[in-house]
Amino acid sequence: MISHHLGLDYALNPGWMAPYVAGLSVGKARARRCQSCAATSFPPLRVCTCGCLEGDWTDLPGTAQILFRTTGLDGDFGLVHFDGATTKTTLRLQAIPATETRGVIAASGDDLPVLCLTALTGERDG
Ligand SMILES: [Zn+2]
What we know:
By secondary structure, this protein is mostly beta strands. It contains one helix and eight strands; from the N terminus they run H-E-E-E-E-E-E-E-E. It has a five-stranded mixed β-barrel. A three-stranded antiparallel sheet has the order 2-1-3, covered by helices on one side. Strand 4 and strand 5 form a beta hairpin. Bound molecules: zinc ion (ZN). The site of zinc ion has 7 residues, from loops.
């Protein structure tokens, strides 16, 4: 075997997903609501399952129910359902105790927009 380092610099353009990507950076769950059937996808679907191409951006509360979770060598991951969405998604669970069944979207910062769920703070206090 021959070892060789390969470096790669590239830029990804978010294109039509720009509102979604911008939301991830600041911890907002920007979903796409279909103009035909009102299905709300998060992460957004470019083409709705009904076939419609037209959608509007809408902000979800950002809270989600954890349906399934697993722990891997590089952390915890879950299948979650964001409140207000009609879709489910897999994502990284960040510092959510194994007994918790809910979380809230985490701000990923500007370096790398990543969909991540973190522990709720205060939702149960009010
Ligand atoms: Zn639709």
